[in-house]
Amino acid sequence: MTGLEAAAKAEAPATSATPALALVDLNKAYGALKVTDHVSLAFDVGELHAIIGPNGAGKTTLIHQISGLAQADAGHILLDGQAITGLPMAARVRKGLARSFQITSIIPGFSGLENVALAVQARLGSSFRLFGAVAREERLNAPARAILETVGLLGRADLPAGLLSHGEKRQLELAIAMATEPRVLLLDEPLAGTGPEESAAVIALLRKLKGRYTIVLIEHDMDAVFALADRVSVLVYGRIIASGTPDAVRHDPAVREAYLGEEGL
Amino acid sequence: MTLSLFLVQTLNGLQFGILLFFIAAGLTLVFGVMDFINLAHGVQYMIGAYLAAMFTALTGNFFFGLMLALPSALLFGLLLEFLIFRHLYARDHLDQVLATFGIIIFLNQAVKVVWGAAPLSVPVPEILSGTVVLMDGLLYPAYRLALIGSGLAIALILYILVSYTRIGMLVRAGATNAPMVSALGVDISRLFMVVFGFGAMLAGFAGAMVAPILSVEPGMGDNLLILTFVVIVIGGIGSIRGAFIAALLVGLVDTLGRIFGPFLLRLIMDPSAASQTGRALAPMLIYILMAAVLFFRPAGLFPVRK
Amino acid sequence: MKPLPEPSATAAPPLPASRPGFVRREWLPIILFVLLALLPFAAMLGPEKYTLSLVTRVMIFALAAISLDLILGYGALVSFGHAAFLGIGGYAVGILAAHGFQDAALQVPVALLASGLFALLTGAISLRTKGVYFIMITLAFGQMAFFFAISLSAYGGDDGLTLASRSKLFGLSWLENDRFFYGLVLALLIGCYALTRAIVASRFGRVIRGAKENPVRMEAVGFSPFRYQLAAYVISGMICGLAGVLLANQAEFVAPAYMAWQRSGELIVMVILGGLASLHGAIIGAAAFLLLEEILSGYTEHWKLIFGPFLVLVVLFARGGLLGILARVRGKSGGGR
């Protein structure tokens, strides 16, 4: 593993410490289409690192590979210097790597509280317990309520999650991810489909979470990205064409060429 | 055990496979295109057999009987579609199972009321009543050969229909991605009706064709239905090609297993026990086959939907 | 009366029929069990033996239906081979009895072990597949068990096996007494109902219910649903195996027909007919199915002409099964809530 670690460190430009998450020469293709093309990135502990790119650049596929929902064809993924390549998603979550989904993924029939308590339960283990009413377990509910309060959903905690508004569902999804107590949080377009007011609430929440977790953020809302990110990487046709501070990326000629006109940085 | 016995049994297996294919073709399309579990598909087969028996008796000629039975089976299928099935397409699979189970119960009893509980028999048409010498010492009934021939012909026609016609294209597209087809502005409910009617007629045809060689009786479709499900699951739901290959596979494995299983068991146990155990265990073979296929290919041999 | 208001205009997914924590129809199972407990006293006024035997049979199938509801209603695992467990339980009794082991103290553990083992093996393979393929592979295993039972020529083969008597209970012949047997079956039904109810509301049950609604979400919080679903499948199989033990004792007979696919279909029908995912719905469904069969067949030999369309009508017009109808009636008369 030491060779890998060295490789990971070599890819990490800014710091000498072990990155929270490192991608080493990740590759994936669907037939002849390379969706991830020699991607190497290092994410420092506590940074908010945004990955942007035009539609079809392969951002969600990249998140799928990091989270384990899809497996990379080649390359390595290191969490705190430890290889997690090839592990199924559930195992990666238990190691401290949580994600949210672009298309809201909650359990609609469960209340908001149950959705979050379920994630707490996954972390605490002993889910083969066949007796005892889980709905009344304070060991699960208390931490779940605290997280719901952080995301501003405590007042709606007992409503079936399927009845929440779209923005509230996005917040709930963040709460579920937080409840797994991750060190690294992968957020796949947390603002997708939200209206202006809802998106302001989610942005405020992300600002609150910044620094607590290492956050990998995929987002189309450029205002949000440049307001929140410590660093930005640009993915085009599966390749990272630039990576750096928001200002550096904003003025990168390659980025302007690939990107300008479509979104307008 | 001789070569000719083996050949005769292989032909029997083929013939059984062809029969399964007739029923499976409609079922796999209804399943693949409409995502509809139709347990009542087996009773369509039974109805086809009863209609053929009735019309043959009325006209005194099997071919006239067949000619009348086919459109009647089609009409009957469309009637069921109109009355019940079209209200179930949007429901979940469990509702479909419950409702079509109710239809099985009803129709199995209804045929008893209409045609009596005793099995009906239909004479083999005279022109096909002889045997054909396939090779030295190998005789095979002409009617069964005709059945195999008509099966291959229908498989070919189906293949052309599905591959080269507009409706076939829609059916294939529907099996792969039904919402997309309706988004293209195709009248989905009419497409469903056509597919359903066609499937019902094929099942009815199968019933009519076996009427002269099997006894026509209530419940004759029940066990065949289960075998047909095995076929379409092995073949991959929605795939006509898969249904064809799987039907022949299941027909051959089942028939040959029943005959040669006891022979093989005789190597390890005494003859009478071997024949008894072999006969009983042989029907398990195809289920073992299916479990094995699904173990290695969880969506069948020719998966259609991604 | 206007229809019940939709919960939300924004196409929110419908709520599942039952959410432990939100249980409001708690009185219904209690009334059910009280009625069942009082029935033997009423039965003394009429044809006692007939009544007790019929309702005992209903309760045994209710037990099997509850076991199926645990995985079907709460886990969306449509087992189309569940009758195999009835047969395994029954044959455990029949085969042991044929060798002189007549005591339930041995028969029951053997039956539970055999059902559990069969569930573990077939479940581990079946749960690799999803949806329709799961339905079909469980059907395949059910059929294998069916044909295997036919091949047991030493134990009656196709014709089945008649028991010389009901099982002994620690050497005593109490099960021969119909009233005692009725009470025992009722006690087991209540026990298993309470057990499954506790399981559904437990940590384990929450994982099963969550995996039913959104398996990807379950993995994204760190669960691998497979192990939990397999455990639920084994528990369900064992409860159904117990029902098989009782069924063999009730009929004093076991046969491959216990495991026919139609029987598995009937179990599914009972669960849906009563109302999915409520457990007592399974009891109501089993009772409705068997009593309707019994009553209709008393009027006409062609009772299936009525019963078949009845099932179709329930699907077309009574969503949520009989419990759904009950809820709607209550909703209307109570002004809705």
Sum this structure up briefly.
The complex is a heterotrimer of chains A (265), B (306) and C (337). With 265 residues, chain A is of the alpha/beta class. Chain A contains 10 helices and 10 strands.
Give an overview in words.
The complex is a heterotrimer of chains A (265), B (306) and C (337). Chain A is of the alpha/beta class. Chain A is 37% helix and 22% strand. Chain A has helices spanning 2-11, 59-67, 89-94, 112-124, 138-151, 166-179, 196-209, 222-228, 246-250, 253-259; strands at residues 21-30, 33-43, 48-52, 74-79, 82-83, 97-99, 184-188, 214-218, 231-236, 239-244. In chain A, the strands form two sheets. A six-stranded mixed beta sheet of chain A has the order 6-7-8-3-9-10, sandwiched between helices. Chain A is globular and about 60 Å long. In chain A, 47% of the residues are buried. A two-stranded antiparallel sheet of chain B has the order 1-2. The model of chain B has no long low-confidence stretch (mean pLDDT 88). Chain B has a single domain, classed as ABC transporter involved in vitamin B12 uptake, BtuC. Chain B is mainly α and 306 residues long. Chain B has helices spanning 3-34, 41-59, 62-83, 93-115, 142-164, 166-176, 178-183, 188-210, 220-235, 240-265, 271-281, 284-296, and strands at residues 131-135, 138-141. Chain C is mainly alpha-helical and 337 residues long. Chain C contains 13 helices and two strands. Chain C is globular, with a radius of gyration of 20 Å. The model of chain C is unreliable at 1-23 (pLDDT under 50). Classes of the chains: A alpha/beta (265), B mainly alpha (306), C mainly alpha (337). Chains A and C meet through helix 3, helix 4 and helix 6 of A and helix 6, helix 7 and helix 8 of C.
